[in-house]
Design a protein that fits this description.
The chain is an alpha+beta fold. The protein has a domain at about 5-25 and about 45-85: 2-Layer Sandwich (Folate-binding fold), CATH 3.30.2270.10. It has 2 helices and 6 strands; from the N terminus they run E-E-E-H-E-E-E-H. The protein has helices spanning about 35-45, 95-100, and strands spanning about 5, 10-15, 20, 50-60, 65-70, 80-85. Strands 3-4-5-6 form a 4-stranded antiparallel β-sheet, with no helix packed on it. The longest helix is centred in the middle third of the chain and has 9 residues, at about 35-45. The chain binds zinc ion. Zinc ion binds near residues 59 and 65. InterPro entries: SoxD, SoxD_sf.
Length: about 120
């Protein structure tokens, strides 16, 4: 049994939680000005990180609140848990989405692990 530490409720069984995808994916400032490709990248392109990854979780059978977690995707070690709107504790790497935001994806390298067609 794996315990997740909800910021509101404390340690609980992982079966009480649901995964919500990559954390820190900001809504575009001017969504109406995005190209179809940029909008598709916002909606569907997510990183598939090997190692530390910032992700969202919801305590669905507890307080029903969303929070962020830094988890190692290889070892499943939970490095940090923090509330929505907060930044990860110092010493941990910046959220992958924040790093990617400053470097737009090149078409050929957009997401080599994504095999979906017709964006
Ligand atoms: Zn909770």
């Amino acid at each position: 049994m794996l315990l997740f530490s909800c910021p509101n409720c404390g340690p609980r069984n992982e079966t009480e939680f649901h995964y919500g995808g990559q954390a820190h994916v900001a809504y575009p400032d001017q969504p109406g000005e995005l190209s179809d490709r940029e909008w598709a990248e916002y909606l569907f392109y997510r990183q598939n990180t090997k190692g530390l990854f910032a992700e969202r979780w919801v305590h669905s059978t507890g307080c029903r609140k969303w929070f962020n977690m830094i988890r190692d995707t290889v070892s499943y070690d939970i490095q940090a848990v923090y509330r929505m709107g907060e930044q990860p504790p110092e010493g941990l790497t910046a959220p992958p989405a924040a790093q990617a935001k400053s470097q737009p994806l090149a078409p050929a390298e957009a997401n080599p692990t994504n095999t979906s067609e017709g964006v």
